[in-house]
From TrEMBL:
<dbReference type="GO" id="GO:0005737">
    <property type="term" value="C:cytoplasm"/>
</dbReference>
<dbReference type="GO" id="GO:0016301">
    <property type="term" value="F:kinase activity"/>
</dbReference>
<dbReference type="InterPro" id="IPR050890">
    <property type="entry name" value="PTS_EIIA_component"/>
</dbReference>
<feature type="domain" description="PTS EIIA type-1">
    <location>
        <begin position="39"/>
        <end position="143"/>
    </location>
</feature>
<protein>
    <recommendedName>
        <fullName>PTS system glucose-specific EIIA component</fullName>
    </recommendedName>
</protein>
<keyword id="KW-0808">Transferase</keyword>
<keyword id="KW-0762">Sugar transport</keyword>
<dbReference type="Pfam" id="PF00358">
    <property type="entry name" value="PTS_EIIA_1"/>
</dbReference>
<dbReference type="InterPro" id="IPR001127">
    <property type="entry name" value="PTS_EIIA_1_perm"/>
</dbReference>
<dbReference type="InterPro" id="IPR011055">
    <property type="entry name" value="Dup_hybrid_motif"/>
</dbReference>
<dbReference type="GO" id="GO:0009401">
    <property type="term" value="P:phosphoenolpyruvate-dependent sugar phosphotransferase system"/>
</dbReference>
<keyword id="KW-0813">Transport</keyword>
<keyword id="KW-0418">Kinase</keyword>
<keyword id="KW-0598">Phosphotransferase system</keyword>
Amino acid sequence: MGFINQCKQWFDNTPQQTQTIDIYSPVSGEIVSIEQVPDIVFAEKIVGDGLAITPHGSTIHAPVDGTIGKIFETNHAFSIVTKEGVELFIHFGVGTVELQGTGFSRLVEQGAEVHIGDPILQFDLNFIQEQVTSTVTPVVIANMDAIQGLSKKKGSVTAKQDILFSVTI
């Protein structure tokens, strides 16, 4: 590299362009901090950072426009990736994997292109509440290394309508 190019590289302080992406609530309910999820993997942010929701209703919707990355065989959890590369992981409840899919119905398949509000999974809330430790549903960013900032909301949320959190990439 020549001296002039090296100098240009040293002094090129062009700010990186940031972008904010709104993550909508995939289910209606009450927001719970991720640290209060009764599962250490989520509470200690091992999977990623985000929020959780104590759900109402019977459907989990796409929180962003993106591609379904993985839907677990038991239909209790899935990932979705935005075109900007943000990877979200939505996990219904604690102990739900042990239900082996009972109480859940898949509405889309892996690889499907979805838009905010599209139904992804249906669930029988009453049945599941009787069977598991908790129905608190974490919504986390699985690739936090790609995130510059995270703005979390509080209170109640309505699926498809309210922003749960915003990320800056």
